[in-house]
Specification:
The chain has two helices and 21 strands. It is mainly beta.
C-alpha cells in the first residue's frame, strides 16, 4: 500500500492531517468513530525498519481507543516506531521528536482490581491525559505513562519510565524517571 492510498484511508476515518505529512513505511493508525486525531504540518512518521537506524521493533501505532479519545500531534514532529495510544487524551507539542520504539499511553490497558480485570470491565481502566510540550525529545525505548506532563524543551533519556509532572527544560532519565539535569 503506498502512502497516498493510506492518506485516503486516514481521511475516511476522519484523521485530520496537515501539509507535508511524510510516511516512511506504513503506520497503524486507528481513529475510533467520534474520536479526534489531528496531525500537524511537516510531520514525519517512520514505520519502516530502515527509516531509523536505532533499530525499530515495530511500525508506528497511533490509536484513539474510545469515541471520547483525543490525540493532537503538533507541527514538525518526528515519530519513529512508537506507540501512541489514547483512551483519554494525548497532546504532543510542536518540534518534538519521539525516538524509536517509545510508548506513550494514557491508560492502564486493563483494570487494576482483580474482579474488574477478570470480568473485563472496560469502564474500570484507569486513564489520565498526557501532555508533552514543544521542543521535547523522547529517547528510544522510553515509556510515558498516564497523567504525565512534560514541559517545553524536556529531554527524556533512552529507556526511561516517566510518570509525573516535569517543568520546562529538564533532562529526565531512569526507572522511575527523575530530573537529572536542568537545561
Amino acid at each position: 500500500m503506498n502512502s497516498n492510498w493510506f492518506k485516503l484511508v486516514m481521511k475516511a476515518t476522519k484523521v485530520r492531517y496537515g501539509k507535508n505529512l511524510l510516511l516512511k513505511g506504513m503506520p497503524v493508525i486507528f481513529n475510533k468513530s467520534g474520536a479526534e486525531l489531528t496531525i500537524g504540518n511537516n510531520v514525519t512518521i517512520n514505520s519502516s525498519f530502515l527509516s531509523n537506524l536505532v533499530g525499530l521493533y515495530q511500525r508506528t501505532i497511533i490509536v484513539t481507543r474510545t469515541s471520547e479519545s483525543k490525540i493532537s500531534i503538533g507541527n514538525n514532529v518526528g515519530i519513529s516506531g512508537a506507540t501512541i495510544y489514547a483512551r483519554n487524551s494525548i497532546s504532543i507539542g510542536d518540534n518534538t521528536l519521539i525516538g524509536g520504539n517509545a510508548k506513550i499511553m494514557d491508560n492502564d490497558f486493563h483494570p487494576i482490581e482483580i474482579e474488574a480485570r477478570n470480568a473485563d470491565i472496560k469502564e474500570k481502566i484507569g486513564a489520565k491525559p498526557i501532555t508533552i510540550g514543544k521542543n521535547c525529545f523522547i529517547g528510544c525505548n522510553s515509556l510515558i505513562l498516564k497523567g504525565t506532563i512534560l514541559g517545553d524543551g524536556c529531554v527524556v533519556g533512552a529507556g526511561a519510565v516517566v510518570s509525573g509532572v516535569f517543568e520546562d527544560n529538564c533532562v529526565i532519565a531512569g526507572n522511575p524517571a527523575r530530573v537529572i539535569k536542568r537545561l
